[in-house]
Amino acid sequence: MLITSRETRRWVIPKGNHIKGLAPHESAADEAYEEAGVRGIACPSPLGTFTYLKRRRTGRTRELEVTVFPIAFVEQVEDWPERHERDTRWFDLPAAVNAVEEPALKALIAAFREPVIPARLAQRVLPAFRTQAKKRIPMVAWFQALMPTQGRFFDQFEAHAATLVAGADALAKLLHNQGSIADNIAEIVAREQQADDITRDVLQDVRRVFVTPFDRSAITSLIGVMDDAIDQMNGTAKSIELYEVTSFEPQMRDMSGIVVEAARITAEAIPLLRSLGNNAGRLHDLTARLIRIEGDADDIHDAGLKALFKAHGATAPMDFIVGREIYSHLEKIVDRFEDVANEIQGLVIDHA
Residue 115: is its pLDDT beyond 70? Predict the structure, then answer.
């Protein structure tokens, strides 16, 4: 989503000054709503920075640095404060890169990738995807020709990644009180069950297939940590349902934003395993970001737990115990995504 600036009418991303009392990513989300009508789940970990010259009506310019945060899009409302002051437009990635002027912003946008996992993969239509994957990624044709009826490991990994994205989105909506709590929990449970089915298929194929794209232990380890991530999402949802929690601490919401970003990164990284040598550089960048945002999640977890204890430790100990359990699940979700990063890095080192 790009918008036009007020003065020069050039294409830019929504941005503004840090709002007092809000965290930086919360300010970014507020600006996305004010300037573009976009609501979504903001991740506290920035993507990077860029500088630009802010041009004033007097003709003077001032160099400013902008910190950019990813926001998982939920909706664009029908009306918003600056609707009649700017134009808004959705671009595909190459067009967005060409539309903006700042070189560093061009690089940040170019670093994103179009989603490669069709929604139907979450419904486990693996044979259909297998045919399309062969058309889209010719280099895998040799593997499918070798084993036309055996093993679907790449497809299965990508299908599992789709469940991670869907489960993370539902978890974030749950913690941001967007939609019905029961519906969001049901969505997480359904995705966890789909993930279990996919994991079971992978383990069965590992036992029966003679030739695998990489070592059997690597396959089982990677699908195992991916499954652990959605299991922890399910554990979070179950705790919320069990204890009938209806309101959530700001740090819990922030951690859910990191979970959404981690799932997005994973969904981009997994298809790149089809060609480890060609994609080693990009996989390094993606796994490095996964590890970095896990550190951010640890800081948010610690701050949230401390605030929770101060608020409820002495006066409402059960509220503290319940909140601590939810924090524990959220921390473990992000930890499992770090495990995914480590497994992928190991594959790159071994095979690239």
Answer: no
